[in-house]
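Sequence in, structure out.
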Amino acid sequence: METTLLPHWRRNIYLFLTSQFLSGITSMVVQYAIIWYLTKQTGSATVLSLATLLGMLPMVLLSPFVGPFVDRLNKKALLIVPDVVAAIFAIILSVVGTLQATFPLWLIFISLLVRSIAQTFQMPTIQSILPTMVPAEELTRINGQLGMVQSANMIIAPALGAFLFAIIPMNFLILVDVLGAIIGISLLTFVMIPEHPAIDEKVHVLADAKFGLDKLRHTRGLWAITMIGATFTLMFMPAASLYPLMTMGYFHGTVGQAGLIEVIYSVGMLGGGAIIGLFGNWRDRMKPIFWATIAMAVTFGGSGLLPGNQTGFVWFVILNVLAGAVTPFYSTLLMAMIQQSFPANELGRVLGVLNSLTSIAGPVGLIFAGPIADAIGVEKLFIIGGVGSLICGLAMLAMPSVRAYDQQLQARLAAEAEPVVEESLE
């Protein structure tokens, strides 16, 4: 859809970003509180890995089949309904926690699973509607600003979560998620989201999932990037899921220090997102993506080599500032490239398959992460993750189709834009 049909697109997109910020922060406060509760109650890497695994499974199993609905159903409803369902389960968890002395683990895991299912619908929806809400030349910059919003959430949420975790009983803290859903839905009702004619077409789930897979497989260079991303997740995610245990177990820290690490990482992400948001028009976005992967490998692997004391924790904080700063250069720039690679009416189906493929390795790694961490130490998983990330970065550099992907993409987009410019001049 031409952005001329939305003359106030900037005001519209910033209202949308505000709704995502205010609803996201409350959801993340509850998410952190649940993870810290599990860490404090069990101290088990296996339990934390299982919690993260349940949070990832819907993305892996449902994403290819969610994409067709994202392309065809009402986008605003796809953002609102999952929030309502997650809020209902938050109320159930709060009531049970009030009636019993402790929260049943099985109910916590179900709650995490439902929240993940909600995000599985919302993530590709947000990714697919952005190109319809802003001009093409502003897409990378707006993606950077969305990254800043998400980073700001991750800065405020851990600090606020640690504070509230200390002063509010867990059964009441969970209800913050309900407040966030009300705020987010209220703001979202005022946002204009363009729809495509495909909304009225029938959904053929398996055929549409195959369509998304075929589109991705036949996009030279992007398929290789997707496979490298899946390998990166396999190596990176197991240790990333154990951040609270690294702080509270290996470094002998507190819940407050676990919150501090999340804040510090997110401050770095906010800085990286700000750079992209202000100076987001790179001629070749694969170069910063490559260097970001290498930097993440160095910081992650280096964290596993630190001594298990408070001095080591100080260096852990410093490394996480750098790791956070380079993360948006990988995720944000790659997403902008993907969004520009396919028409808006196909993007949901492609993103559903792509999100599934890049996430599928995470649960595989998490199945073994807990027992391995309990056996050899959580810090060893950080070293393994760093080495694996380094290999992924070098694979990007070694493959010509990956190195040249963005240059070829931008050349194609420029060629497609020339006839439009000539017609407007006539």
